[in-house]
Design goal:
The chain has 3 helices and 4 strands. By secondary structure, the chain is α+β, with helices and mostly antiparallel strands. Helices cover 52% and strands 21% of the residues. A 4-stranded antiparallel beta sheet has the order 1-2-3-4, with helices on one face. It has 2 domains: 60 residues; 99 residues, no CATH class. A hairpin with a 4-residue loop joins strand 2 and strand 3. The radius of gyration is 34 Å and the shape is elongated. The protein starts with a helix and ends with a strand.
Length: 164
């Protein structure tokens, strides 16, 4: 009788071990598949991130902060690039409030005064600006220079207004 109990216990133990082994094997395979899927997703996102970083670098080429030569020019004048950008941006936006139309814009607003909405620094000399009166839109190229006193002078190099 004792022998049969040990035999049954032995068989039960073997079945339990086989069950545990199969269960752990399936869990391991599932986790391994999940890890591979996550690695593939990570690789795809890493590739996308590299592509986006390359695009950003390409887009920043024509910016004041992305152009080493332009930054060096500004720094040689004794200014910091970010401070120059902020100061010029403030001066251009303040001109929106001086008159009905911004004096840098050669067009008269038909609905309201022409105002500059956005500006983008191309380098240490030029700015691309977007303007509107609420109904008509256009763009202009502005040249900025520093005089002997450190004042900033603006000159409109060209502009266009989009037809309706």
């Amino acid at each position: 009788m004792k022998r049969q109990i040990f035999l049954y216990l032995f068989l039960f133990t073997i079945l339990l071990l086989i069950f545990q082994y199969m269960n752990q094997k399936s869990i391991f395979e599932t986790q391994d598949k999940q890890i591979e899927n996550l690695r593939a997703k990570n690789e795809a996102k890493s590739t996308l991130l590299d592509s986006l970083q390359n695009q950003v670098a390409e887009l920043n080429y024509f910016t004041l902060s992305g152009n080493e030569n332009a930054m060096t020019y500004i720094e040689n004048l004794g200014y910091e690039v970010q401070q120059v950008e902020n100061h010029i941006r403030e001066q251009i936006y303040e001109k929106n409030f001086e008159h009905k139309n911004n004096p840098l814009i050669p067009y008269e607003g038909m609905e309201a005064g022409m105002k500059i909405n956005k500006i983008k620094f191309l380098n240490h000399r030029w700015i691309l600006a977007d303007f509107t009166d609420g109904n008509h839109w256009g763009e202009l190229l502005i040249e900025f220079t520093f005089d002997e006193n450190g004042n900033i002078n603006f000159q409109n190099l060209g502009s266009l207004i989009y037809p309706k």
